UniProtKB/TrEMBL annotation, chain A:
Similarity-based family: Belongs to the prokaryotic molybdopterin-containing oxidoreductase family. NasA/NapA/NarB subfamily.
PANTHER family hit by this protein: NADPH-FE(3+) OXIDOREDUCTASE SUBUNIT ALPHA, RESPIRATORY NITRATE REDUCTASE
Cofactor: Mo-bis(molybdopterin guanine dinucleotide); [4Fe-4S] cluster
Ranges for domain 4Fe-4S Mo/W bis-MGD-type: 8-67
Superkingdom, natural source: Bacteria
Organism of provenance: Marinomonas foliarum
InterPro entries the UniProt entry points to: Asp_de-COase-like_dom_sf (IPR009010), BFD-like_2Fe2S-bd_dom (IPR007419), BFD-like_2Fe2S-bd_dom_sf (IPR041854), CT_Nitrate-R-NapA-like (IPR041957), MoPterin_dinucl-bd_dom (IPR006657), Mopterin_OxRdtase (IPR006656), Mopterin_OxRdtase_4Fe-4S_dom (IPR006963), Prok_molybdopt-oxidoreductase (IPR050123)
PROSITE patterns associated with the record: 4FE4S_MOW_BIS_MGD
Gene3D superfamilies named in the record: 2.40.40.20, 3.40.50.740, ADC-like domains (2.20.25.90), BFD-like [2Fe-2S]-binding domain (1.10.10.1100), Dimethylsulfoxide Reductase, domain 2 (3.40.228.10)
Keywords: 4Fe-4S, Iron, Iron-sulfur, Metal-binding, Molybdenum, Nitrate assimilation, Oxidoreductase
Database matches in Pfam families: Fer2_BFD, Molybdop_Fe4S4, Molybdopterin, Molydop_binding
Protein name: Molybdopterin-dependent oxidoreductase
TrEMBL record, chain B:
Family, as annotated: Belongs to the FAD-dependent oxidoreductase family.
Keyword list, A-Z: FAD, Flavoprotein
Domain NADH-rubredoxin oxidoreductase C-terminal: 325-392
Gene3D superfamilies: 3.30.390.30, FAD/NAD(P)-binding domain
Species for this entry: Marinomonas foliarum
Sequence ranges assigned to domain FAD/NAD(P)-binding in this UniProt record: 12-291
Top-level taxon in the UniProt lineage: Bacteria
SUPFAM superfamilies: FAD/NAD(P)-binding domain
Cofactor names: FAD
Protein name: NAD(P)/FAD-dependent oxidoreductase
InterPro entries given in the database record: FAD-bd_OxRdtase (IPR050260), FAD/NAD-bd_sf (IPR036188), FAD/NAD-binding_dom (IPR023753), FAD/NAD-linked_Rdtase_dimer_sf (IPR016156), Rubredoxin_C (IPR041575)
Length: 899, 413
């Protein structure tokens, strides 16, 4: 297998970032030592047709990492795979024997592939006997899943990406797609440009980049979204746009839902008031909704990450059902997932409240069906623990072994302090990752080195139900292995040889496909029976296809519910009565600010991949908190200054970004920075473990916090040839850089040249006596700047100043170049931070006024014909006169002049 | 000689002293007012009108004789300026408005300008008047030094600008040079200790030996009166062939005194450069204004400009401004201006790149730059000079000020 990978020169694969699931062309270098050339977008992939966003475009830069986990580790020591697997399986066997199967849990990820997910789910639910299989998808779209299931009887995304281009009204709720799903956003923007009558409405408490193309932005009170859709339902009846035939023939529960809507949102004015928007703006949306049959409601984390996320989803779906705007071109409720394979995880049943293949424990006959298919000895019989509950059970000592795969719960789950306590309490923490150092790997007892993107082989499903191949084009480094392989080895070691003896990845996919079709007969939405006999060659050649792909329908399915038939027992969709509610935690005197969380354009999740690409740090280098100018002024917080956010659960230090994009009393912080990149900026420290009671999805977009300016500090910049441990810093952030190490720091004030010179003591290999220091000190501005040179080459640069400054460090970092001695100009400029755009004066002739030969020649060319004239023009020679002889030589003789 | 006391209809301007100040005044004044004035320039040296500043360069062989003239004396004479050389003025009869020269000639003036300059101060050490003890002021001093045989031992007394320039010139000519300097660091009026250290290292690399914080105790003389040894404090005796006194200059005011002009350290002048006698003016190193004397060329050029006007009855006033100092040693760049030893209310902005011999110190007070030392890279010296001269408020560029003009005024660069 490795051999064929090595001979391939390029291949098509799928981007590992957001749920858009773009096709990527990856070209391999000629030899293993060369860097992988930049990737390009796959022109044939229906998600992106060749486009790639900046994160995707930078994928090649993230392939080489200095921080790969290359060997299994047990208790901090490298061991052979065989030994590590034995350690793990022995412990699992012991806790299952002593405490029952629910003492074991998987905590998986929307980044692993469908096949990895499938075998993990199979092992836990059919062989160990626990449904404790949850995933970071819980944090992402669990509410959307439950919303679909309540309405449709199945977790079915009705729409496709083309619908986004074909609709006449696009309502984007709780989504900053411009940054989080850039290619979809580009497709929408292009469609809108072509058809300017297409309306785009953004519903979001913040003014985001997505608002750039919007015709209307409703800056609602955080969490109030459901009220808008509750009112749209009522209004649809009032306005006479109800699709009576569809409601009558294809739905249940309309009357009750309408009554609840009428009661919850009796008027436009009360709804506008509830949401904190103007009646006029809400009326615009209502008018457009009334007039536009081709409407898509596009929603993401802003809807899902809520204590009432499921209700919000159903409030949206209700409106589409009532108007029959579903199952049609350019219409439908469209949940957009955040992760590359959250959908694949849902398909195999890789969530604690699912069984397998879109069947639940509660689905009649499902347990028996799956048990027979798997020939499972130990079927789980009930829902397992959802993410937050799982970690709470871990802290309570109920879950004793957890296997975490490709995710970073120390940063992504709410209340990091609780997560830490849970992992500390857990008897065996197994972490599979491709990175050696994450906030979660430091908590592990056993580390399994995993293959990463471009090495992993399997399938993923994007937000429009499209299954694509991620292809293993590069060899696995070190001892890294595919996740499915590690799971199967543990399963075999536990005694389940026959059920986990796959020879190749396509066998797993085929089994997954076979299960989806097993006794299905059109009863279950997820059916990819066409692939149940797939060969390796066919699997390797798989072209992206939208499920369902049942036997006999290889072209797949573009759009769902076109026939108005749903997957409930009676085939009718269900209206769900909704009462809009606000988030659980409310502002108080002690915790006056509402914290919203989200993403920046060029980072992905916890930066374990994107953090390797220096270019991606250019857009946003440091963690920040967005704060309204009036709030900032009141709290004496200056732009770029360090701010302490405190909640009842913990604190975080972030740089202020004063902006009107957030409303008064609200703040916003991106979630990406881990302790690998910044010592004190983990935003999940602040988030309560409040979840939606139905989906278990945390209300991560809402926390109550206190803000304060941090005093008694000075700000600094450090650029070092070697990584530094910055123990004296109150705050540090490592900004990914092309070379060397770039830190933005904050010290307690009172730093001196002497104290700063000690920063790399014991950390750098430079001999102290070989070091030359360049020093700048300014008592007026309280600046200190130091540069350390060894053999005339820059190895360390330290800037300290009392006010936050923003220097573009790229140029300084470029001066770390290994083989370059610094020029005289640069020796000054590295303490300025910018290169001087110095005029080339030529050789200095007049040293009093520093006038150079080139300036004099220029003056002579322009007509100056005497030394006095030069003096009048340039001042040269008018002080000490010692250059007068030289100046004379520049003046052409009379004879020459006359010629 | 009758021609010198000719009965020309023109007014007579007599300038005593044909050094830089006198020569340039004569030159510029002739250009401006040659039609109405008969100008007489009297010099004691055989060569007049040369650029004294270049003596160090001449000594160091950086330039040749042909590059020495400051003004074109031949052309001046063609234009009617009477130039008398090698004939010092010895007496002023202000009553009869007549100058008596050593040769016995007497010259009548309507207006008289004294530009008698200064002489090297002679330290009160026994033997200072020995034939091989000299100053470093004139072209003929350079002649003496350039005619020294190879590999002589020279002792220079004074580590100021002149002493160091002499030392470099002599060491370049292959002589063994020891410099005595009374202060604990070189150029103590122009540099601080750190920048002086950089300079010291550089000059030591060139082969000059230094005795800092030390003056010679005495000279040992041979029978013929020549100094053979310099005796140091601890009794150590250094064998020498030549002693160069460069421990400061004394304004040359003997003539003025004899004429009864008011003097202090030098000839007292008002802001019109006028002495206590109404038609007598003084200029350059021999004058004293507002308790200051002048050793650098810049203020003297300003004085010339003032005199150019005053002599023809126009209004002008001399104002003292800070003047930058440089050391004319090729390969050594330093620049010093204004207040360089800060007092308590001043702040010092520092840039140090010791291994690259680059040092900058700016003294700032109340938003104004008041002093600067640059060593190694002096490109911004003139800009700092302008900031001081123009009293430019630098408050909004304090964070970049020490890095120079290119950073503070990028549109200018």
């Amino acid at each position: 297998m490795t051999a064929t990978m090595m001979t391939a020169t390029s291949g098509k694969t799928t981007c590992p970032y957001c749920g858009v699931g773009c096709g990527v062309n990856l070209t391999l270098p000629y030899s293993a030592n060369e860097a992988v050339p930049p990737v390009s977008g796959d022109l044939e992939h229906p998600a992106n047709f060749g486009r790639l966003c900046v994160k995707g475009s930078s994928l090649a830069q993230t392939i080489q990492s200095d921080d790969r986990l290359l060997t299994p580790m047990v208790g901090g020591h490298p061991v052979a795979w065989e030994s590590a697997i034995k350690t793990v399986s022995a412990k699992i066997a012991q806790v299952v024997k002593d405490h029952g199967p629910d003492a074991f849990a998987f905590y998986l990820s929307g980044q692993i592939l469908t096949e990895d997910y499938y075998v993990a789910n199979k092992l836990a639910k059919g062989f160990i006997g626990t449904a404790n299989v949850d995933t970071n998808s819980r944090l992402c779209m669990a509410s959307a899943v439950v919303g679909y299931k309540r309405a449709f009887g199945s977790d079915t995304v009705p729409c496709n990406y083309e619908d986004l281009e074909l609709c006449d009204l696009l309502i984007m709720v709780g989504s900053n797609a411009a940054w989080t799903h850039p290619i979809l956003y580009q497709r929408i923007a292009a469609a809108k440009k072509q058809r300017p009558n297409m309306k785009v409405v953004v519903i979001d408490p913040r003014e985001t980049a997505t608002c750039d193309i919007s015709d209307l932005h409703l800056a609602i009170k955080p969490g109030s979204d459901a009220a808008i859709f509750s009112f749209l339902l009522s209004d649809s009846v009032q306005a006479g746009i109800l699709d009576q035939g569809f409601v009558t023939n294809h739905t249940n529960g309309f009357k009750a839902a309408l009554a609840q809507a009428n009661e919850s949102t009796p008027s436009l004015s009360l709804t506008a008031d509830f949401c904190g928007v103007s009646e006029q703006d809400l009326a615009s949306l209502v008018d457009w909704w009334r007039d536009t049959a081709k409407t898509i409601t596009f929603y993401s984390q802003g809807v899902n990450q809520s204590s009432s996320g499921v209700d919000k989803c159903n409030a949206i779906i209700n409106c589409h059902l009532a108007t029959g705007r579903i199952g049609k071109e350019g219409a439908g409720p469209f949940s957009i997932t955040g992760q590359p394979n959250a959908m694949g995880g849902r398909e195999v049943g890789g969530l604690a409240n699912q069984l397998a293949a879109h069947m639940d424990f509660a689905t009649p006959g499902a347990q028996d069906l799956v048990q027979r298919f798997w020939q499972a000895p130990n079927m789980a019989t009930k829902d397992g623990l959802k993410a937050v509950d799982l970690f709470q059970a871990m802290e309570e000592g109920k879950v004793k072994v957890v296997w975490i795969m490709s995710t970073n719960p120390m940063v992504s789950l709410p209340d990091t302090a609780q997560v830490r306590r849970a992992l500390e309490k857990c008897e065996l923490v197994i972490v599979s990752d491709c990175k050696a150092h994450t906030d979660t790997t430091v908590m592990a007892d056993v580390l399994f080195p995993a293959t990463g993107w471009s090495e992993k082989d399997g399938t993923v499903t994007n937000s429009e139900r499209r299954i694509s191949r991620q292809r293993g084009l590069l060899p696995a480094p070190g001892e890294a292995k595919h996740d499915w392989w590690a799971i199967c080895e543990v399963a075999k070691s536990l005694g389940f040889q026959s059920a986990f003896s796959y020879q190749s990845i396509h066998e797993i996919f085929a089994e997954h496909a076979a299960l989806s079709a097993f006794e299905n007969n059109g009863r279950r939405d997820f059916d990819i029976g066409h692939f149940s006999q797939i060969s390796k060659a066919e699997y390797d050649a798989l072209i992206p296809v939208q499920w369902p792909v049942p036997e006999g329908r290889p072209e797949g399915t573009k759009r769902m519910f076109e026939d108005g038939r749903f997957f409930t027992p009676d085939g009718r969709a269900r209206f769900i009565g909704i009462t809009p509610s606000f988030p659980k935690s409310r502002a108080s005197q002690e915790w006056p600010f509402t914290l919203n969380t989200g993403r920046v354009r060029d980072q992905w999740h916890t930066m374990t991949r994107t953090g390797d690409a220096a270019s991606l740090a250019k857009h946003t280098a440091q963690p920040y908190v967005e704060i309204h100018p009036k709030d900032a002024k009141r709290l004496a917080i200056k732009d770029k200054a360090l701010v302490r956010l405190t909640s009842p659960y913990g604190e975080a230090l972030l740089k202020a970004k004063v902006s009107r994009a957030v409303a008064l009393g609200n703040v916003f912080a991106p979630i990406h920075w881990t302790q690998q990149f910044a010592n004190a900026s983990v935003v999940s420290n602040l988030i309560p473990q409040v979840v939606d009671p139905l989906s278990g999805q945390p209300e991560s977009k809402h926390a109550q916090v206190r803000l304060e300016a941090v005093g008694g500090i000075c700000y600094g910049l450090i650029i070092s040839a070697v990584p530094l441990v910055l123990s004296d810093c109150l705050y540090w952030c490592q900004v990914p850089s092309e070379q060397g190490y770039h830190y933005e720091v904050v010290w307690p004030s009172g730093q001196t040249q002497a104290s700063l010179k000690l920063i790399d003591v014991g950390q750098s290999q430079d001999l102290a006596e070989k070091a030359e220091w360049l020093e700048y000190s300014n008592p007026i501005t309280q600046q200190i700047r130091l540069a350390k040179l060894v053999d005339q080459k820059l190895t360390l640069l330290i800037y300290s100043h009392p006010q936050p400054e923003s220097l573009v460090a790229d140029w300084l970092i470029s001066k770390l170049a290994i083989n370059t001695s610094l020029s005289a100009q640069d020796r000054l400029a590295i303490l300025v931070g910018i290169p001087a755009n110095l005029e080339d004066k030529g050789d200095i002739v007049c040293s009093c006024y520093q006038i150079g030969s080139k300036q004099i020649e220029k003056a002579v060319t322009s007509g100056v014909c005497s030394v006095d004239g030069l003096g009048a023009r340039l001042k040269c020679g008018t002080n000490c006169g010692s250059c007068l002889p030289e100046l004379k030589r520049f003046i052409p003789t009379v004879a020459e002049l006359s010629v | 000689m009758p021609s010198l006391i000719s009965q020309s209809e023109k007014r007579r301007l007599v300038i005593v002293g044909a050094g830089m100040a006198g020569s340039k005044l004569a030159h510029d004044f002739e250009k401006a007012h040659g039609d109405e004035y008969q100008i007489v320039l009297i010099g004691e040296e055989s060569r007049v009108g040369y650029n004294r500043i270049m003596l160090s360069s001449l000594l160091a062989n950086d330039i040749s004789d042909t590059e020495m003239p400051l003004v074109d004396t031949q052309k001046m004479q063609e234009n009617g300026v009477d130039i008398v050389s090698n004939d010092p003025a010895i007496k002023v009869d202000s009553k009869n408005k007549t100058i008596l020269l050593a040769s016995g000639k007497s010259i009548i003036y309507d207006q008289l300008v004294l530009a008698t300059g200064s002489r090297a101060s002679v330290l009160p050490i026994h033997g200072s008047s020995a034939p091989n003890v000299m100053g470093f002021r004139t072209w003929s001093d350079v002649d003496v030094m350039t005619q020294l045989d190879d590999r002589r031992s020279v002792c220079i007394i004074g580590g100021g600008l002149l002493g160091l320039e002499a030392a470099v010139g002599l060491v370049k000519r292959g002589h063994k040079v020891v410099v005595f300097h009374r202060s604990s660091w070189l150029l103590n009026r122009q540099l601080d200790e750190e920048s002086a250290e950089l300079l010291l290292n550089r000059l030591e690399q060139m082969g000059i030996e230094f005795r800092l914080g030390e003056s010679p105790e005495s000279f040992l003389q041979t029978d013929d009166g020549r100094v053979s040894h310099v005796v140091c404090k601890k009794g150590e005796k250094l064998s020498v062939d030549l002693v160069v006194m460069a421990a400061g200059i004394s304004p040359e005011i003997a003539l003025a005194k004899s004429a009864g002009l008011k003097t202090d350290r030098a000839i007292l002048v008002n802001e019109q450069m006028q002495t206590s006698h109404v038609d007598v003016f003084a200029l350059g190193e021999c004058c004293e204004f507002d308790r200051q004397t002048f050793g650098l060329v810049a203020p003297i050029w300003t004085q010339i400009n003032v005199l150019m006007k005053v002599l023809v009855g126009k209004e002008a006033a001399f104002v003292v401004e800070p003047t930058p100092t440089k050391l004319k040693v090729s390969g050594v760049n330093l620049f010093s201006i204004g207040k360089i030893q800060p007092s308590e209310e001043d702040s010092c902005i520092l840039f140090k790149d010791v291994s690259a011999n680059h040092y900058r110190k700016l003294v700032v007070n109340g938003g104004l730059l008041v002093g600067a030392i640059l060593y190694g890279n002096v490109a911004d010296g003139s800009w700092y000079f302008q900031l001081i001269q123009n009293k430019t408020n630098v408050s909004n560029m304090l964070d970049l000020l020490v890095f120079g003009e290119a950073y503070c005024c990028p549109q200018v660069a």
